[in-house]
UniProtKB/TrEMBL annotation:
The lineage of its organism: Bacteria, Pseudomonadati, Pseudomonadota, Alphaproteobacteria, Rhodobacterales. Signal peptide: none annotated. One of its GO terms (biological process) is methylation. Keywords: Methyltransferase, Transferase. InterPro entries: Methyltransf_25, SAM-dependent_MTases_sf. The keyword Acyltransferase does not apply. This is Methyltransferase.
Amino acid sequence: MSFQLSGSAPEIYENSMVPLWFGRWAEALLTFVSLKTGETVLDVACGTGVTTRIAKRDVGSDGRVTGLDINAGMLAKARELADDMDITWIESDVIGTGLPKDSFNAVISQHGYHYFPDQPAALKEFYRVLAPSGRIAMSIWDGHSAYTKALCSAVEKFISPEIAKKQRGQRQTPSANRLIAGLSEAGFRNVTVARQELSIKVPLAATFVPLHLGSMPIANAFHSLPNEEKEALIADVAHTLRGQVVDDQIVYQDAVNVVTGLK
Ligand SMILES: C[S@@+](CC[C@H](N)C(=O)[O-])C[C@H]1O[C@@H](n2cnc3c(N)ncnc32)[C@H](O)[C@@H]1O
């Protein structure tokens, strides 16, 4: 499974998905590393940089923050948004970053880990670049929410089972036990997993589904549908989630696992 966005998707991702989803989880993730003024931080799979910017706010002008992502479009948006923030941006795969060993006090990553093609190698790379006693915190979806289940079911009906499989893959995430085993095998100690839940509020399906799918790797498959099929897909999601509409918003619980450890 991969997560690669092109065209206007990084813009839609930043303008819609960051305020509704990723910005909220970002503040929650950063509480796990308690960054201090002057520390050095690597944000892996930083995307448009929501967690990177918060990390820079926390370490202040004496701190050094690096955002790393494989996708040039996501990094272009990240650079634009942090124009005046003195953050280093690196376009690279998580493996073979070329970063010096023992150089960061903290490595963070939000919703990147399950896309890495070689997770044990990625964890070893994070261990290598962390300074002794450095800490890691990564958040990963804890499976599907009511919204993502409804969406994937509609994608299967109105686009195709193959595209639905791709979309479902975004939430096929490792169990807490697998995360603990993976970090321990890479050398981390004091490894823990904490489950975090948030009540998520998004606009009604007619507004939100096109924005969400427009910010996903399957955006082209959705945009290529004839209008009546697009409307049918959206209506299907709206119907499935009709019991979860409150004050013109869809309201549902979502959850992540945050895995932490020390070098
Ligand atoms: C769902 S986005 C999360 C972005 C950001 N962390 C956030 O919370 O908004 C997943 C990110 O992982 C990046 N990514 C996927 N595979 C990668 C890899 N092998 N190396 C580096 N980045 C990768 C994608 O380019 C994308 O920006």
